[in-house]
Amino acid sequence: MISTKVKIVEVGPRDGLQNEKEFVPTEIKIELVDRLARAGLANVEATSFVSPKWVPQMSDAATVMAGIERRPGTVYSVLTPNLRGFEGALEARADEIVIFGAASEAFSLKNISCSIAESIARFEPVAKAVKDAGMRVRGSISCALGCPYQGEVSIEAVVDVVERMKALGCDEIDIADTIGVGTPKRTREVMAAASKVFARERLSGHFHDTYGQALGNIYAALQEGIEIFHASVAGLGGCPYAKGATGNVATEDVVYLLNGLGIETGVDLDQLIEIGDFISRAIGKPSASHAGRALLTKKRDGVAACV
Ligand code: HMG
Ligand code: MG
Description:
Elements: E1 7-10, H1 12-16, H2 26-38, E2 43-48, H3 61-67, E3 75-79, H4 83-91, E4 96-102, H5 105-112, H6 116-132, E5 136-142, H7 155-167, E6 172-177, H8 184-197, E7 203-207, H9 214-223, E8 228-231, H10 251-260, H11 269-283, H12 290-301
Parallel strand pairs: 1-2, 1-8, 2-3, 3-4, 4-5, 5-6, 6-7, 7-8
The structure holds 3-hydroxy-3-methylglutaryl-coenzyme A and magnesium ion.
């Protein structure tokens, strides 16, 4: 049964901006996080405490976290690949730590320089430290619907990592289509299999829109009872280790879809459209959101866009 309420995790400031070649000024990142939280996004993935050699765009993680306003009730998440990252996140008073593995061995090696088994062993002390600190931990599984290096990824491989992340104590687990190759049928199958081993209401769908399938995949996952989805305002982003992958599905498009289905998100679409425009101008790229572009045109010119 389709849920009447959905949580949207806004990943634009992290997943979106991490891929920008030109360094995005820290004040812009702070304003982006603050405006997204004010627009009603109850969970904002703000930055990552990763090696600046690997992802230079996130090198200002501590400054971003120190500069944002903390809205009561908003969960500010950050990515950490190791204990060093966790220490930075703890000092920065993040609410939720995201550990990130993959269902594909080849991608794991490219993204975090180790095998899947090694990554789980590396996350073990991180997850324990997170729990000891009374924080939430989320596990993200990349390439759950396909890999840029190895191609096909089996459902068994995804379920295996879900089980390993569950054993680490993850509060939430993300099924991520890093390169946007998944289609609705496969999405349903993967979600159904994952929810046999982990609570359905704590599984999330993280869909990139490279092949234009993300909204279809969200609808399919909704039919499978999934109620948490990741999205990126203006469809920002890609992945530095997945060549050619485009951004996450645009938050504006997801909110428009869910509004149409009568599903509550708590997000103010009007504010979101303005935020999409703000960040698109700031990075000098057109918004990738269909609903964002159409609604902005309608708002500014009083007519609906026809392209
Ligand atoms: P490594 O080079 O194998 O490890 O990287 P290392 O321990 O030799 O560290 C290299 C350098 O980084 C050293 O500096 C460390 O001190 C430093 P040096 O001694 O050479 O001056 N370092 C750090 N600095 C700051 N914070 C840290 C940290 N750790 C080490 N936490 C490592 C291994 C895991 C560190 C590296 O591969 C890494 O940081 N990877 C991050 C990759 C990343 O952020 N990818 C994008 C996020 S995942 C994603 O987007 C997918 C997702 O959206 C879901 C989906 O769509 O699939 C979540
Ligand atoms: Mg991603």
